[in-house]
Write a structure and sequence with these properties.
Among the domains are: 1-198, Arfaptin homology (AH) domain/BAR domain (Substrate Binding Domain Of Dnak, Chain:A, Domain 2, Up-down Bundle); 268-300, no CATH class. It has 12 helices and no strands. It has helices at 2-44, 50-67, 75-128, 135-196, 213-229, 231-236, 242-253, 266-274, 279-288, 293-301, 321-349, 358-362. By secondary structure, it is mainly alpha-helical. This is UBA domain-containing protein.
């Protein structure tokens, strides 16, 4: 029983040490997540794409829900609080009790040695056949009775503790394991839920592995071939500099995302001006919302975010640059096909040409 108690104590010490390692690892993970989110947010806040800025802010808020120790409902704060109450303190209590039992076992051993010594003295008195009235016999018997009483008292207390621990040893270890599993699940589930709030509605971005320079080289070659195919455009651009061509390229790529150009309804504009809005933003809001006064007013009150009205590929997801290029090429291809179709229809519906042959001259 004493050997099993020693094994149980060593198991608890090992578990306690590994829990300390686990909590240190969780702290390092939390610090890394916090540093990464802060760095990404600081870098992306300077981006011109407002959707990227908004997504970086959402990522920072999600990481704060995981890593902020001063927030009582953050994942790491709840983990530390629950680990301290449900695992660490109970383990420390068991280890302290085991240390006390070790001290009691040492005391029991001393009482046992005293009792054995008293038994030897009584055996020596019996060997010498001392009478019961002899002072040496009386002293030996008194020492024997006292040592026996103290030993029985000490042995009974230690035995009961060892017996209880033997009965509940497996329950204690199983409870520790199940509690650790539950707390780990709760931490990672809460962290995953926090990150899920910052995820896009669908996977509209390209993986980093597809954005390597070797992969982008194909895009460069495609742009070069398009420029070579447009002979007239090349002839006009021979004297242009790189900056001029770059600005024109950006303007061409952004054509599909421009604001819808349509006349502004004067009554709707007057209604917005009467509400105290400036004329420029009011006109812009009406163009964005096709002269819908209420929608334009809501847009102005909301701060005039263009992303709410611009096409972004659906589901509020930022489209990658490659998707914009593909969409632009598809639109150009459709326009070219439409021109070819109209030209073919015009050729079919045109009247046949009048002949000027020899027969007509003689007639």
């Amino acid at each position: 029983m004493v050997k099993e108690f020693g094994d149980f104590d060593e198991a608890l010490k090992t578990i306690n040490g590994q829990i300390e390692v686990f909590m240190e690892g969780i702290q390092h993970l939390s610090d890394g997540l916090h540093s990464l989110s802060q760095s990404l947010t600081a870098d992306l806040m300077r981006a011109e794409d407002r959707r990227m800025v908004a997504e970086s802010c959402r990522l920072r808020e999600a990481m704060n829900q995981i890593t902020r120790e001063d927030a009582p409902h953050s994942s790491i704060a709840k983990l530390k609080r629950n680990m301290d109450f449900n695992v660490i303190k109970p383990l420390e209590g068991h280890l302290a009790n085991n240390e006390r039992l070790r001290t009691e076992l040492e005391k029991r051993q001393r009482r046992l040695d005293e009792f054995k010594c008293a038994c030897q003295q009584m055996h020596e008195c019996s060997r010498r056949e001392l009478s019961e009235t002899d002072e040496r016999f009386i002293m030996a018997r008194q020492e024997y009775e006292i040592s026996k009483t103290y030993f029985n008292k000490q042995d009974r207390q230690v035995f009961e503790w060892l017996h209880v621990l033997e009965l509940h040893r497996d329950d204690i270890l199983d409870s520790c394991m199940q509690t650790l599993k539950h707390l780990q699940y709760e931490f990672f589930a809460a962290s995953a839920h926090a990150v899920s709030s910052a995820l896009p509605a669908r996977m509209a971005f390209r993986p980093m592995a597809e954005m390597l320079p070797e992969c982008l080289e194909a895009q460069v070659d495609l742009e070069i071939r398009e420029a070579e195919d447009d002979v007239s455009d090349v002839g006009n651009r021979l004297g242009d500099g790189f900056s001029t061509r770059f600005v024109e390229r950006l303007a061409r790529d952004d054509d599909a995302e421009g604001l819808p150009q349509q006349p502004v309804d004067s009554l709707s504009l007057s209604s917005l001006l009467a509400q105290g809005f400036a004329e420029g933003p009011a006109r812009r809001a009406l163009r964005l919302h096709r002269n819908d006064t209420q929608a334009a007013m809501d847009w102005l009150i909301d701060g005039g975010r263009e992303e709410a009205s611009r096409p972004t590929g659906g589901c509020g997801v930022r489209m990658p640059a490659s998707a914009k290029h593909v969409r632009r090429r598809r639109e150009l291809l459709e326009q070219q096909r439409e021109r070819i179709r109209r030209a073919a229809e015009a050729d079919r519906t045109a009247p046949p040409p009048t002949g000027f042959g020899v027969a007509s001259v003689f007639e």
